[in-house]
Amino acid sequence: IVGGTVATVESHPWVAAIFWRSKSKEKVFRCGGSLISSCWEVRSFTVTMAGAGEEQDDRTDCCEFAFQLKHQRAPLLLICNCLAALMKLRANQGKCAVESDSVRTVCLPPPQQRLQPGVTCEIAGYGKEKYGEEKAQVNLLADDVCRHKDYYENMITDNMFCAGRPDWSQDACEGDSGGPLVCEVDNRLFQFGVISWGDGCAKEFRPGVYTRVTNYNRWIDEKTNLSITAGA
Ligand code: 4AZ
């Protein structure tokens, strides 16, 4: 998070810090995530593959495709954003996550709920620049603004939305991707976005890009075999 403030774990009890175990068995911090049920987390990630040729794939939600190619060691450079990925937690003594003041699931948004541009939402994560849990506030941008040529033009699909500060002072950054963007509706917080990508951090005309979670409610319910979508 850039330009944010220190957050207590209790204020964002659904935020996960995801670590990978390196070859030397060390735990290395990779990205964020959020707890959507006691045994499932949702996150986003970027797949980059280098090879002999160079080709940029413009599909933005191509996880399965990318993994197939990775398996075949295809000679191309592919960068794609997996906008929504689910991670199943392993149960420990019959339980996955045990809820407490610092561990709690986040609510998925009602699928039809649309928020107006300008609405202020909150992001949280453990990424740059301070690498401690921080939170910041960002405002939703209208799609046509984010698709303007001064912004991201045709890089924004219907599965994404943009959010930033009018003065560009607060933003998500490297290591925050996968983490949640939550907004308040009728005094309750819902996860409307997954921190996904951006050109740099807190840069003018380069807002953060988020996965539009309402487009994935049904998919999440199907994949997890849960019915965690409100009002579905
Ligand atoms: C990242 O690499 C990342 N400023 C996440 C969000 C943004 C940039 C980079 C948005 O995880």
From TrEMBL:
Coiled coil: none annotated. The keyword Secreted applies. It is an enzyme of class 3 (hydrolase). Its main location: secreted. Residues 1-225 form the Peptidase S1 domain. GO terms for molecular function: serine-type endopeptidase activity. It catalyses: Preferential cleavage: Arg-|-Xaa, Lys-|-Xaa. It is found in: Secreted, Extracellular space. One of its GO terms (biological process) is plasminogen activation. Belongs to the peptidase S1 family. CLIP subfamily. This is trypsin. It comes from Lates calcarifer (Barramundi). The chain holds residues 131 to 362 of 367 of the full protein.
